Amino acid sequence: MSLFPPESTDDDAVLLPGVTAILDRHGISGRPLRFEDGSLPVYAVDDLVLKLYPPIHRAECALEAGVLADLAGRLPTPTPEVVATGELDGWGYLLMTRLRGRGLSEVWPTLSARERDGIADQLGETLALLHKEKVPTLPATDWGKVVIGQRARLLEHHRKRELDEVWLEQLDGFLDTVDLITPREPVPLHTEVMPAHLLVGPDGRLSGLFDFEPAMRGAREYEFASVGLFFARGDGRVLKRVLKAYGFTDIGPELSRQLLGMTIIHVYSNLGWYMRELGIPAEKSLDALARHWFPL
Questions:
Q1: Is pTM, for the whole model, over 0.85?
Q2: What InterPro entries does the record point to (predicted)?
Q3: Full domain range(s) for residue 68
Q4: Are residues 181 and 264 in the same domain?
Q5: 258-285 pLDDT, tens per residue?
Q6: Beta strand pairing call for 91-97 and 48-53
Q7: Which of 23, 123, 165, 221 is the most exposed place for a label (fewest CB within 10 A)?
Q8: Distance (Å, rounded) from C-alpha 287 to C-alpha 55?
């Protein structure tokens, strides 16, 4: 009898027998409590976290475990440490240490401007060091081919997400004027740096960065699409703070356009949703949208 279903499921009752079997395998007796958020099933078990990967996402288990092992103790913001990995009924699993702190989304509204500046600085410094790490688990990437591939699927991708035609018809023309294929060597990227993946400790500093399963190599500017959208949320002061702490010196309108370009080609991009979350400028042009979302 299988302890896990053959496909992905959000049914906690169906998953629990498999979760219990994994915990028993590693001699862990705590009661598993499922986190509500996340695209994959994740459970807290005392001081540990158990993350499950259905068969269709099995490859992400090895990648995330490898990246976490490569980064262990290397960044100024803590990342989970790998305790064990394995497989059960075709599902992969990663057992790791639990980071402590409160979610950034919960904490951010209570922080002073000075405390927010400190977190922005720490995030910029963390990403600068992440991008300098070798992270041998991540395969080499031909970034030019990635961009070409994403552009080939661009209109289909955004049309499926019901982006209004007034924006769809501008995408190719805008991207033709933006440098997406930078001369720099591709660097290790988290790709989804956002409050949902960041924790803050009692001292007001970032105490955790997690969820590395979509990590890849790419242009450093690709990383800052999610930073601008979800961390800074259109606040130019916050975004500039992160970029300066990272080490950017070319902060200005052209970088704003480049970050919007990276947003447009991002594998998880949903421009219509971002527009509902962050609003749109009175002028319905992508140049105006770049200034609105990434005001530099």
A1: yes
A2: AGP_Transferase, Aminoglycoside_PTrfase, Hygromycin-B_Kinase, Kinase-like_dom_sf
A3: 12-97
A4: yes
A5: 999 999 999 999 999 999 999 999 999 9
A6: antiparallel
A7: 165
A8: 42
